Amino acid sequence: MKYTYLFAMSFIFLLLSGCMYPQSERSENQIPNEEQLAIVQQAVETYREEEGGLVPIQTKDSDTHIFEKYLIDFKQMLEKGYLSEIPGNSFEQGGVYQYTIVDPEENLLVRLIDLQTTEQIRSVNVRLDVFRQEHTYPAYGEKITDQLYTVDYEKLGLEKAPTVKSPFSQADLPIIMDLNGNLYIDYSYDLNQALEENDHNYKEGDDIRYLLVENSPFVPAYSQPYTVKDGQAVFMEEE
User: Fold this and answer.
1) Would you say 78 and 69 are in contact if contact means Cβ atoms under 8 Å apart?
2) Does residue 208 sit within a domain?
3) Distance between CA 222 and CA 182 in Å, rounded?
């Protein structure tokens, strides 16, 4: 059965000092809260209805990753009275989640970006930057597709391949890179699990990342497009 939640990248962390979040790291700020998500979802829908189709989002560059492109602007919502307070688990309040809107023109789903994955990506990026200062190429590992590679963790001085903790399954997901050295998370494990556990109509050529969005409170941040082939999640090849 497909569960639809009324839930909800992302801020690049501005601090390299070890202070990951702007306020306290209370445990209640570190977990998704269904009630908070539902309140924000309703508030965003009301905002669009009463503001002539506009949605309360922060301004981002046009080439921003699709799941990070429409971050909710809580300041607007507070000033106009659509919310009485900012969710306690949001980044703005010291939590580990960024609230984002998926498809603001159609479904207007509110979802969460897990900023703990952002910190893990950032830590690898710091090592990559050091490597680039000494070499003219990124620390490529094994080839995955024509555009994607694993990270050569030994070149970065790491003891093992870098991973992030999945907000969907809590599994350790690999960090991969493209030809330009940009880092991504490989969500193959989560997507294959979602394909198996949920009814869907996705076919080869469709972007199946939305299967995760439809069935959880999160979005797959730092992801590449995936499709389905022979029942399995595969990276969508660039044409």
Assistant:
1) no
2) no
3) 10
pTM of this structure = 0.84
3-state secondary structure of 114: strand
In DSSP terms, 143 is beta-bridged to 149
Number of domains the chain is built from: 1
Parent domain of 69: 27-115
Report the alpha-carbon distance of residue 184 to residue 152 in Å, rounded.
14
HSE-CB of 97 using CA atoms within 13 angstroms: 29
- Residue 235 β-bridge partners: 226
Give the β-pairing of 172-178 and 148-151: antiparallel
Q: Residues 6 or more apart from 50 whose CB is under 8 A from it? A: none
Helices and strands (H, E) in the chain, number of each type: 5, 9
- The pLDDT tens digits for 52-84 are 999 999 988 888 899 999 999 999 999 999 999
